[in-house]
Amino acid sequence: MATYSLNINETLYEVDVAQGTSLLWVLREHLGLTGTKYSCGIAQCGSCTIHLDGNPVRACVLQVDNVANGQKIKTIEGLSENGDHPLQKAWVEAQAPQCGYCQSGQIMQAAALLEKNPNPSREEIKSHMNGVLCRCGTYLRILEAIEMAKEQTNTTS
Amino acid sequence: MKNISKKAIAPIGRRQFLKSSGGAALFIGVSGLLPNLISCTDAKGMEGQFAKHDVTAWVRITEDGQITIYNPAAEMGQGSMTSLPVIFAEEMDADWSKVDVEFSPQESDIYGSPGWQPGTKLMFTVGSRTTNSYYTVMRNAGAQARYVLLHSAAKHWEVPLEELTTGASEIMHENSGKKISYGALVPYLTMPETLPDFNDGGLKDPKDFKLIGSLIPRTEIPQKVDGSAQFAIDLRLPDMVYGVLERGALHGAKPTLNNESDILAMDGVLKVVPFNYAIGIVASTLEAALAAKKVLDITWSDAQASGFNSQEIYDVYAQMASAPEKGNTVNEVGDVDQAFRTAAKTYEADFKNDYVYHAQMEPLNAVVQVAADGQSAEVWVGSQQGPDTKLGIPDLLGIPHEAVNVHLQYLGGGFGRRSMNDFVLECGRLAQQMAPKPLKLLWTREDDVRYGAYRPLTLQRLKVSADAQGNLSGFSHCVVGDGGNLVASGARNDHYTIPNQWVEWREASHGVRLKHWRSVGHGPNKFAIEAMLDEVAHDQGTDPVALRSKLMADSPRALATLNKVAEISNWDTPSPEGRAKGVAFVEHGSLGTGVCEISVNRNTGKISVHHFWIALDAGVVVQPDNVKAQMEGGIVMGLSSVLKEQITIVDGQVQQRNYDSYALLRMQEVPDSIETIILPSAEHPEGVGETATPMVAGAIANAFLKLTGKRLRHLPFTPDRVLEVLIG
Ligand code: FES
Ligand code: FES
């Protein structure tokens, strides 16, 4: 067991866990940040996508040891104050989720894209989103939502 | 339908159910009891009522006008959390902006909809039955709620009930100009002596619907975009411990654990629990449980599936299809043998499909807490429910049905897998050992893939006869495979008029776990039927739409979907160079015809689907946008299974482990558009969740035939197989 301090959503958390514990289990089972989901555990599905210093990463393959050195972790819970990030609003507008299980990962992956590239093409969106699976098949509505959010951000800024 | 035990349920489930802060709950009596109104502030009175009567609360109204409607169906992304309450609110004339939705308790005698057998009730979110089976239940209950409100206002104002009208949570009396909101009426609510059954008359005319058929955002979506929607896997309880199981890659094999003491000595490990097909581990943290699972040293026994090789079985199936003895009759119309004897031309082809896996994104899991005395249990689970709404836990623990309380959570995908409760029972067994600590059981993705319950592998031999004019005179369909209705569903043709038809099932058995998979046998069977029709059309030089149009002459609703989709897909206009369109029809409750446009990379064998068009007749559509979402999702899941998905078995061992070896369709592979047209209808609603998926294989195979002149007859159409067909 070891103590780690993690900077998550601009809050400092201390956890006592075994060395090498996956960041995903720390977030979900130890800290109760359950918006980030487990689905494959091997970086194949993207359900566990979070931001590490602004980059989209798969929490399931990160060890807590490697993210406890002041890196900034952002989860879906920290994406916006009241679920009102332009992407979240667009997601509701497009009625994108079905079962909803993959959607935190989808939104986090999309948010990282718009931060770096506020005006991605459809092909750029598809390629950036390709790593996040949705079994319910909501891909077209996700695309629609990202395009909606991108237009909104671009007209308001 | 008397059930003694039901009365005793009250102290557990219902008390929490109406943990209300005020207002009145409207209980509509069942078993011939009179309806009741209960003040929610009077906790004693409420419990008294529970103890005395079999009651069902569908709605709770508070003085501030807030209305809670209880949803009896599982929510797995198909929208039941909105569609059923919308039906209720429509007949109640509730102001939708003031409606909250919660899950009802899991008691099928009370909250069930009509089951398969007459006089039975079921809470079972399967077979696309939710809207279809609850439509009249919810309408009647909503109309009864409105009637209680009208009755109370009439008393309060001392005017005849017939002079009152309602609209958006308000009651109006035109003659006096009086108005009162539903909320303001709460203190004056009184119960009429009898409640009419509105199914006998008095429900709204569908043309007066305000909510049904309009664009209403789904109630649970905001929680699904901010991460707060709770799935069972998200549950955390004080003192909770974690359970995992190691199951073999050979279904049904028995384990012998060789290193139990090493495992028990590991950090955090609390218990090792043998099952007859697995070794269970309980630990204080999930990571400790998973670490122990990794180092288990297990020797596995043989099982029925030992020696079974899935990709070699097709030869055996083909021989079985050729055997002279017939199998189990699934459908018989006319005399198919006679049709073949007198045919001018006959056609024959074998179609095949490999096993596929559900791959719902939330792996199976549950949380169970057994009381210290073992006499009651709480269960948190994402389940499609079942004939036993307590999911087998009462029998497992040897306690009464009413001592188990099931808290239904959102499902991170169901697709049929969550109508099997193996995982709930596993969790119950481990929790029993750890009582009174709550226990969370998690299947890893590897567990979920390898110990899956698949859509069965089948071979289908189709034979068609045509008379001298080219009319189809006989259609024979022999399905060979394991699983009874799992392989036979969808093999009938109820909307094609062919005078002589024969469907049979020839049974195989391999010891591989099987289960309903979205649209069940319809996937493989509609593929075979629709592809066969195009092979005949191709040979006859007939247009595939024209051929179906003739066959659908006696089924105007099916024909309307065919005509509509031909129109929106510009069927008669040739596709651009290198592309072609294909059509397929499916009936699965609702009726739908789909058209896709594809291209093929002749070097890699990769098929790309560029567009999909669907015309659908689903009767009354409660939530049109949601129906379109179901069509889109159904097509994407269909594309995924048809183009990529494959479980293979070598010497009984499942070869796939995770999404790296079991690939699903990804964003870059989706069509540019999926367009759905819903045909207007006032008929009873039919399910839509499983109508789109079975269109995909036939439509693609038919487009491929048009494009290349070659036949795809084995699912999935992986690039290797496509290349083989192109070269062959
Ligand atoms: S759970 Fe991390 S990528 Fe799938
Ligand atoms: S919404 Fe169900 S997996 Fe994406």
TrEMBL record, chain A:
<keyword id="KW-0479">Metal-binding</keyword>
<dbReference type="InterPro" id="IPR001041">
    <property type="entry name" value="2Fe-2S_ferredoxin-type"/>
</dbReference>
<dbReference type="Pfam" id="PF01799">
    <property type="entry name" value="Fer2_2"/>
</dbReference>
<protein>
    <submittedName>
        <fullName>(2Fe-2S)-binding protein</fullName>
    </submittedName>
</protein>
<dbReference type="InterPro" id="IPR006058">
    <property type="entry name" value="2Fe2S_fd_BS"/>
</dbReference>
<dbReference type="InterPro" id="IPR002888">
    <property type="entry name" value="2Fe-2S-bd"/>
</dbReference>
<dbReference type="Pfam" id="PF00111">
    <property type="entry name" value="Fer2"/>
</dbReference>
<feature type="domain" description="2Fe-2S ferredoxin-type">
    <location>
        <begin position="2"/>
        <end position="79"/>
    </location>
</feature>
<dbReference type="GO" id="GO:0051537">
    <property type="term" value="F:2 iron, 2 sulfur cluster binding"/>
</dbReference>
<dbReference type="GO" id="GO:0046872">
    <property type="term" value="F:metal ion binding"/>
</dbReference>
<dbReference type="InterPro" id="IPR036884">
    <property type="entry name" value="2Fe-2S-bd_dom_sf"/>
</dbReference>
<dbReference type="GO" id="GO:0016491">
    <property type="term" value="F:oxidoreductase activity"/>
</dbReference>
<keyword id="KW-0408">Iron</keyword>
<keyword id="KW-0411">Iron-sulfur</keyword>
<dbReference type="InterPro" id="IPR051452">
    <property type="entry name" value="Diverse_Oxidoreductases"/>
</dbReference>
<keyword id="KW-0001">2Fe-2S</keyword>
<dbReference type="InterPro" id="IPR012675">
    <property type="entry name" value="Beta-grasp_dom_sf"/>
</dbReference>
<keyword id="KW-0560">Oxidoreductase</keyword>
<dbReference type="InterPro" id="IPR036010">
    <property type="entry name" value="2Fe-2S_ferredoxin-like_sf"/>
</dbReference>
TrEMBL record, chain B:
<dbReference type="Pfam" id="PF02738">
    <property type="entry name" value="MoCoBD_1"/>
</dbReference>
<dbReference type="InterPro" id="IPR006311">
    <property type="entry name" value="TAT_signal"/>
</dbReference>
<dbReference type="InterPro" id="IPR000674">
    <property type="entry name" value="Ald_Oxase/Xan_DH_a/b"/>
</dbReference>
<dbReference type="InterPro" id="IPR037165">
    <property type="entry name" value="AldOxase/xan_DH_Mopterin-bd_sf"/>
</dbReference>
<dbReference type="GO" id="GO:0016491">
    <property type="term" value="F:oxidoreductase activity"/>
</dbReference>
<dbReference type="InterPro" id="IPR008274">
    <property type="entry name" value="AldOxase/xan_DH_MoCoBD1"/>
</dbReference>
<dbReference type="InterPro" id="IPR012368">
    <property type="entry name" value="OxRdtase_Mopterin-bd_su_IorB"/>
</dbReference>
<dbReference type="InterPro" id="IPR036856">
    <property type="entry name" value="Ald_Oxase/Xan_DH_a/b_sf"/>
</dbReference>
<dbReference type="Pfam" id="PF20256">
    <property type="entry name" value="MoCoBD_2"/>
</dbReference>
<protein>
    <submittedName>
        <fullName>Xanthine dehydrogenase family protein molybdopterin-binding subunit</fullName>
    </submittedName>
</protein>
<dbReference type="InterPro" id="IPR052516">
    <property type="entry name" value="N-heterocyclic_Hydroxylase"/>
</dbReference>
<dbReference type="InterPro" id="IPR046867">
    <property type="entry name" value="AldOxase/xan_DH_MoCoBD2"/>
</dbReference>
<feature type="domain" description="Aldehyde oxidase/xanthine dehydrogenase a/b hammerhead">
    <location>
        <begin position="226"/>
        <end position="304"/>
    </location>
</feature>
